Amino acid sequence: MPKELDRALEALYSIPPSLPRPDWVRVGMAAHAVGIDFAAFNDWSAGADNYDERAARATWNSFKPGKGIGPGTLFMMAAQCEGRQCAGKPQSVATPALQQAVEPAPGMNAAEVLSRCLAATDGHPYIVAKGAAGVPLDGLLVLPDGDALRIGGESMAGALVVPVLRADGTASSQQFITSHEVAARLKSKGMSGKLNLPNHIMEGFYTVGELVPGGVAYLVEGIGAAWSCWQASGQAAVVCFGWGRVRKVATDLRQRDPGARLVLMPDVGKEHAAATIAMEVGAAVVNMPEGWANNSDVNDLAQRDGLAALTVLLASASEPPQPAPRYKLLGASDLRDLPPLAWSVQGVLPEMGLAAVFGPSGCGKSFLLFDMAAAIAEGRPWFSHQTKAAPVVYCALEGEAGFKLRAAAWEQHHGRALPADLHLVLQPFQLTKPQDVADLAAVVPPGAVLIIDTLNRAAPMADENSSKDMGEILSRAKELQNLTKGLVVLAHHTGKNTAAGMRGHSSLYAALDAAVEVSRKGQRREWKVAKSKDGRDGDIHPFTLKIETLGNDAHGDPMTSCVVLSDSAAKSVSAVKLPQGGNQRLVFDALLPLFKAGSTDYSGAPKGHPCIALETAVITGAALLPCSSDKRTSRAKAAIAGLVKRGALGLSEGFLWKA
């Protein structure tokens, strides 16, 4: 960004400020769009013959981000002024007003003005007022009495003329420091008492003292502060002609002399900006002491407290702390010291990130999500998974009319009110609209779980199969997650082929930190972890939807909704250990009739489970095995041992039972 900002500032100062108002506003809008601040825009505008600071500030404050003209206009207008192509594009034709603004009026050319000037002396009123007697006056001039030059409707005769010098020593422009009376009249009109030569580009700076290779250079806005720095230190002081040009001048000086000690001297109120520039160019900063009014500078300090006080202040110059490196290298000990992964639902959903719960229509995923949301808001276990209590915001964009009944069903089934930390949003929301993202993030508690049900309703105009559209969806979802500092969960559908997983472009699944798949076969419903970057996937959790009757509506018809229950029966069935191998199957089938007729309540056996004697089981099983008679008993014992080991049969004190 600093390099781009330098380019923009260079472009701004290459455009003459004495433009018709529409063109001047266009420049301002383009400068605002590229990130230039008001100080720089105001310094540039001050070069116009009709400059009005109050009007400049009011116009600047009217510019809105993302509205109207973009940064490209600034570079295009600069290219038009310099008669060259812009960014490799064909040169557009400059407007007549812009062409006219490039050329100074007769008698206003920098060289012509200089030729009419006289050398400045210590007796000039401004030099006396600033207490600068004895400072170097090299290159400083005075416009003689009776000179016809007028700027801003005022005569510049008698003004102190400070040249703006390029690297080759030629003057690009001049600054005119007017008399006290003229300055008062200009300020009453909202203008500065220091005026730049209209229609001239500000290139370069002015130096009080001599720049020494590897030496110290104090960078200030105006010449009064430069004189005070030189008087207090004997070191060179560089006049940048306004705060907006400090970054550009500092960058140029650093390129000329990498070993120089550059010291920025910001006026009060510009300390933060000075620290930023100092970090960019490798400079030190000296800030004014506490208690001074806004825009006070070191000349004000020197005049009130004396040069000795300023000498002490200059000695406090220090480099701002450098930011920590962007990347940190971690070793084994660093990895061991990292905190453990934090979960919102242990082993299922992380505390922070982007996740999805997906499945076909009618599988019950919205009911499941609502149940999960309530569990997280209460901090209670969910399907035997621990949860971390957190606020939950549920954006119900699909079937939102039924959520009142879902909430009532949950409360009726559980016998308590919904958790206070569970909040619903029933208004329309579009993930692809930046303003919607910002507005929703503004009301979501930090660290919350945000559920968007469904992704299709949140991005109705997007093509889910398009990498471009899905990329925008993911970008907005991650922006929402960054703003809320929590977990964003997207409810999504599967395609026609449910085995293929989530509908849409594959980049969605790849970008997720976790994904839960919900499925249904007839009345059997289940969910499983399809993806968890640091958890265990594949475990199946059956569930059912229990209908809750909530009274009758106005027509006398029953109102119903559903709640989610863990299906323990289905889990028990899935946990049954079946026989493996031919002998185990034959023996197991042979024992089933015996168990039906067996006796109960043997020691060690579960209460109510019919049992048979182990010896009887061996004899019965051996009779059915298709092997030689001398091996049947041993094979039967091995088969029964295998069935016990697998958990298909239980064994205690010589009696068997079916598990």
What is the topology, as strand order, of the major beta sheet?
Answer: 17-16-18-19-15-20-21-22-23
Q: Low-confidence spans: pLDDT under 50, at least 5 residues?
A: 83-94, 97-102
Assess the beta-strand content as a share of residues: 15-25%
- Approximately how much helix is present in the residues? 25-40%
CATH topology of the largest domain: Rossmann fold
| Count of alpha and pi helical runs | 25
**How many distinct beta strands?**
26
State the domain count: 4
CATH hierarchy class name of the largest domain: Alpha Beta
Mean pLDDT: 87
Distance between the termini: 71 Å
Shape: elongated
Q: What's the Cα radius of gyration?
A: 41 Å
- Major sheet: 9 strands, mixed
The CATH homologous superfamily of the largest domain is called: P-loop containing nucleotide triphosphate hydrolases
Question: In short, what is this structure?
Answer:
The protein has 659 residues and is α/β, with parallel strands linked by helices.
Helices and strands, with pairings:
Blueprint: H1 2-13, H2 21-34, H3 38-45, H4 53-61, H5 72-82, H6 96-102, H7 110-115, E1 118-119, H8 125-129, E2 141-142, E3 150-151, E4 154-155, E5 160-165, E6 171-177, H9 180-188, E7 194-196, E8 206-208, E9 216-220, H10 223-233, E10 236-239, H11 246-256, E11 261-264, H12 271-281, E12 284-285, H13 298-305, H14 307-314, H15 332-337, E13 343-345, E14 349-350, E15 353-359, H16 365-378, E16 392-396, H17 403-414, E17 422-425, H18 434-443, E18 449-453, H19 455-458, H20 467-484, E19 487-493, H21 507-511, E20 514-521, E21 524-532, E22 540-552, E23 558-566, H22 568-575, H23 582-596, E24 611-613, H24 614-622, H25 629-646, E25 649-652, E26 655-658
Parallel strand pairs: 9-10, 9-11, 11-12, 15-19, 15-20, 16-17, 16-18, 18-19
Antiparallel strand pairs: 1-2, 2-5, 3-4, 5-6, 6-7, 8-10, 13-14, 20-21, 21-22, 22-23, 24-26, 25-26
Helix pairs in contact: 1-5, 2-5, 3-4, 10-13, 10-14, 13-14, 18-20, 23-24, 23-25, 24-25
